[in-house]
Give the backbone structure.
Amino acid sequence: MIIQYSVWVVDDEESIRDSLELTLSEVYDIRVFEDAESFLSAMEKEQPDILLLDIGLPGINGIQALGLVKDDLPDIPVIMITAFEDINMVIESMKLGAFDFVLKPINLDILELTIKKAIATIALRKEVKILQEKYLNDHHPCFVGDSKNIENTMDFINMVSKSSDTPIMIFGETGTGKELIAKAIHARSPVFQGPFIAVNCSAIPEDLIESELFGYEEGAFTGARKKGKKGFIEEAAGGTLFLDEVADLSLAGQAKLLRFLESGEFYKVGGTHQYRIQTRVVSATNKNLESLIEEGLFRRDLFFRLCVVQATIPSLNERKEDIIPLAKYFLCEFNEKFNKEISGISQGASQALINHTFTGNVRELKNIMERAVLVAESNEVEHQDLGIKSPLSPRADHLPEASEQEAYVLDASGIHLETVLQGIEKTYMTKALALAKGNESQAARLLSLNHHTFRYRWKKHSA
């Protein structure tokens, strides 16, 4: 189906209105207005896809009208028309959210290109909106994608969510979205109004497992808070407790968790009062629990308690058809974050993403798209913006071999490794700063460093 986009023209010069209406009506649904008041009144009943707005209007001028439009309808691309190029007007209009400018006398070829650019932005937003409405909303978090694997995953979620207390185990590689699945299960369950408490088991030191999971009473140990502390399990009462990386729990921690799962009862550290609560336990791991059981690293009885229902989340490499919908979703997200208007992903970049092997799954794709949107200089994300190579090319993170650069030659005389490594680091930090146009925070993201670490290391190189 061919979509005809609506374009409204607001200009006080009749000759310009007539010319644009005659030229553009062959392709677009055109409406013309001679002043801001008339088109603002019309917008109360319907809205255009694109607005061409003259700055020098009588009464309410174009700048004032732009502000009114953006207050109510911030997503409509507004192309400003002006008889002279005034840098202050350009700056003011851009601050208010103008999409672009065209100068009088209007070059129709330039205007057509500007309108097409605006349409590409609209099309991307509409496509992402459809994906969001279909797969995502605040109360029912889910996945973006159209593959059979994801469809099966969603069918599973809808099936198991009907219970309020059956334990569920989610298996999946790092970055596949196991916590997102757990949130979706919670949101669709009878306990959706209760809390969702996520616990990274691998991050809890062994000597703190009991107090973190079950809490402690006042005076339980030196440094304990007055009035004690609730544990994660108590915080999740009446809701869902998500135990991420549950395979990393120590055997002692596993024994304490098993005791709670069997009875629903527990004691706080240093207390004698027995607590009893009900919470849905959802666990997740990227490890083979059966192998860990054979090695004596995971309790078999706990395995059976946690794995009443099991689900395996497919990796991104197993659902290639979801890569581009996900990439477009992230493109829209980072357009907003970085205040950019990139309208799409080029054919070359799309093919590179599809051919890429994702070791970090959706999380890796998100990072790739964040970098791409940050460094892209054209209207589309290009292959080189992704920071990934084609399968036949060297890896993007490949360091030069000895034959490629003299600095890496190692012979009988030896090298000073620390100096070589510092040189490599400085080279990449310099390139990152150039790509980010001197913005240290953005350069740090390109190198997967936090801002403070980047600044500290850069100062050392600059000293």
Summary: The chain has a mean pLDDT of 84. The longest strand covers residues 280-285.
